[in-house]
Amino acid sequence: MASEALKTRRRSDYKFQLEYRTRWSDNDMYHHMNNSVYYYLFDSVVNTYLIQHCSLHPPTSSQIGLVVHSHCDYLAPVEFPAVVDLALRVNKLGKSSVTYEIGVFERGQEDVKAVGEFVHVFVDRESRKPGKQGMADELKAGLSTILVESSKL
């Protein structure tokens, strides 16, 4: 069961947003967006932010982010056709890891539809181990701009 705090999330609780227009193929046989599509969207909003605001260039970066944990609390369905806002923030920023939170909001509605968590550990591309210095400075600086104070978790 989702915590009461997650159910009260609003767009203003997040510092970056990305729009997504649902597709017919996003629906499952129950006529709502399939659970796997939410994870696709989480990956997309996180990587869009990393590329646009953290100087990450996935094909050539010496560091890569490995997903070590993810989960989603589904609060209400989204169905085709809809426009959703994927809202992103960082809840925890460590030396080589980052914990993101993603809120899914349907355009024109205030209640959050789903809240996901996604954890990346940034490692050296070749060794697949965290570097001694942790994540690159540009990466950490970009992520720190969407970091939320622990009292607002």
How would you describe this structure in keywords?
single chain, 153 residues, alpha+beta, Thiol Ester Dehydrase, Chain A, five-stranded antiparallel beta sheet, 3 helices, 5 strands, 20% helix
What is the topology?
Layout: H1 4-7, E1 16-21, H2 35-53, E2 63-74, E3 83-93, E4 97-106, E5 112-124, H3 137-144
Antiparallel strand pairs: 1-3, 2-5, 3-4, 4-5
Q: What name is given to the CATH topology? A: Thiol Ester Dehydrase, Chain A
Q: Roughly how many Å apart are the termini?
A: 17 Å
Number of strands: 5
Major beta sheet, specifics? 5 strands, antiparallel
Helix segment count?
A: 3
Question: Any low-confidence stretches, pLDDT <50, length ≥5?
Answer: none
Q: What integer value in Å does the Rg equal?
A: 16 Å
Strand order of the largest sheet: 1-3-4-5-2
Q: Which band does the percent of strand residues land in?
A: 25-35%
Count of domain modules: 1
Name the CATH superfamily classification. Answer: Hotdog Thioesterase
Mean pLDDT, nearest integer? 94
Kindly name the structural category.
alpha+beta
Helix content: 10-25%
Keywords: Hydrolase, Isomerase
Family: Belongs to the 4-hydroxybenzoyl-CoA thioesterase family.
Protein name: Thioesterase/thiol ester dehydrase-isomerase
Pfam families: 4HBT_2
